[in-house]
Amino acid sequence: MLDILNLVDNNKKSKNVGLLVLVASLGYFVDIYDLIIFSIVRIASFRDIGVPEELMRSKGEYVLNMQMMGLLLGGIIWGVIADKFGRLKVLFGSILLYSLANIYNGFVQDVVTYGIVRFIAGIGLAGELGAGITLVAETMSKNKRGYGTMIVAGVGVLGAILAYYISEWYDWRTAYFVGGGMGLCLLLLRVGTFESNLFKSDENRDIEKGSLRLLFSNKERALRYLYCLCIGLPIWFVVGVLITQAPEIGKALNAVTTLSAGKGVMFTYLGISLGDFLAGLLAQWFKSRRKVVLIYQLFTVLFAVIYLSSEEITEIRFMVLAFLLGLGVGYWATFVTIAAEQFGTNLRATVATTAPNFVRGALVPSTWLYGFLVGHIGVLYAAISVIILLTVIAVFALVKLEESFDKDLNFTEE
When comparing pLDDT for 401 and 146, which is higher? Predict the structure, then answer.
């Protein structure tokens, strides 16, 4: 009888974990849709609200940077909330904020309002991945949690594919309405989710939680956090510049036809989705996340140089290279998982939430550096220089981090 009761209990637990992974995956799916929809509809939306062609790039950078700065602020806000009050509160609050912001985005009529709304959306979007990854990592066993985070990211990034097709089938305003509507619908599914046992076990303990002071008060801990950030630096430069600015880069390469940023984003995210799945499987095979990330970082810089050296690039070649670049930066879930595994329960969500958003936000200085170099050495050499620099920093940081594949997460930072 005891064995039967244990079996029923295990089946119930498996169903609960499965529901949690499903909810986190769908949440990240909507998050990615809303996160990259601007990159896809940038040209169409700017033309509709009257932005001159010669200002497309600079105004696009303004709106994208506003979104990224929202992600930076939101990462801090949601990370602290998740560690102090629970991961579930973030999963509910963040999706509500960014869903409402994206619906409002469908009504904007000028670039300034566009940027402000994307800033607010960015704050909301900041909480989704870190809280989801933390919840899944703390709920699953240490030798299987990589599969859970792999599924969350692998399914989640497919939201970019839907974003592309919605933007092709409907106008840009409707694309924003769809993203906001999906988020509001997902709120209902989240009612059946549960809080992390590791968080609940420390909930009433008299320890410092979600504290930025605690994170930076110790030199070793602060450096550990900095290294976590640095390993993800190349990812968003690829998406935010190399792919999003494909029309401008294609022009510098004397492309046969104007390169489509929308198609580029779609194929890049197809690559990222497959890359996330493969990274998770490879990490289980090698019993190491660091080795996998190193391989991906080297592939990223290789494909980037090939892309930026493709004189008279065709649309087909661009889409193939966009897919390969996506594969290269498809260690996104592994990167966030590494960050979560490096820190104790009382700081884990703060780190896992701020790390991906600080990396996204790092696109701002990366874009500034890129823009500065463009004026001196041109678009192509500037892009090559920045991606090589970011990769060197990322590899150095990776070497400095300890392997966390089979690390027990039941510990706190003192």
Answer: 401
- Quick one: CA torsion of 41, 36, 65, 276, rounded to 10 degrees? -150
Task: Determine the pLDDT at residue 27.
Answer: 82
User: What are the structural domains of the chain?
Assistant: 7-191+215-400 (1.20.1250.20)
Residue 252 has pLDDT above 70, yes or no: yes
Q: Which residues of 366-379 are buried (b: 16+ CB within 10 A; e: fewer)?
A: bbebbeebbeeeeb
Distance between CA 276 and CA 356 in Å, rounded? 15
The confidence score (pLDDT) of residue 19 equals 75
In the three-class reduction of DSSP (H, G, I as helix; E, B as strand; rest coil), residue 350 is classed as helix
Q: Report how far residue 374's alpha carbon sits from residue 79's, in angstroms, rounded to the nearest whole number.
A: 36
Amino acid at position 51, single letter = V
Indicate left, alpha or beta for 13 from its phi (over 0: left) and psi (-120 to 50: alpha): alpha
Other CB atoms closer than 10 Å to residue 147's CB: what's the count? 18
In this structure, how many other beta carbons lie within 10 angstroms of the beta carbon of residue 220?
A: 7
Residue 72 pLDDT:
85
Q: Is the dihedral of CA 365, 32, 247, 267 positive or negative?
A: positive
- List Cα–Cα distances, 21 to 36, 276, 278, in angstroms: 22, 15, 18
Confidence at residue 307, expressed as pLDDT on a 0 to 100 scale = 94
State in Å, rounded, how far the first CA of the chain is from the last one: 43
Q: What is the DSSP letter of 241?
A: I
**Full DSSP string of 332-343:** HHHHHHHHHHTS
pLDDT category at 202 given cuts 50, 70, 90 is: low
Alpha carbon dihedral 54, 60, 66, 67, in 10-degree steps, equals 170
Q: Is the model more confident about 5 or about 351? A: 351
